[in-house]
Amino acid sequence: MLKSKQRGVRGKNRLANALNKPIEGRLAEKPTNLFKVILFALTLTAILAYSVSELGVENGFKITMVLIVIFFLAYLQGKSRSK
Questions:
Q1: pLDDT digits over 32-78, tens only?
Q2: How many domains does the chain have?
Q3: Which one of 66, 69, 71, 82 is most buried, by most CB atoms within 10 A?
Q4: Rounded to a whole number, what is the distance in angstroms from the first to the last CA of the chain?
Q5: The domain containing residue 29 runs over which residues?
């Protein structure tokens, strides 16, 4: 009888044990720098396309340049804090 109870407990904890395991494989890998650059470029392209379509070419480029400077300054600030 003791063995059957132990099996039940083990069975109930199987889901909890599966959820508490660390993620392994490709999902656990940190994104590479190339992936980050591509994602950043796509984001800036989307911002540029949206701002140009809403504000016109001249103002759209100005807004996009301001956002690029803001992103760059935030990147530098994060870099200096990590040292």
A1: 888 888 988 898 889 888 888 888 888 888 888 898 899 889 888 88
A2: 1
A3: 71
A4: 60
A5: 2-82
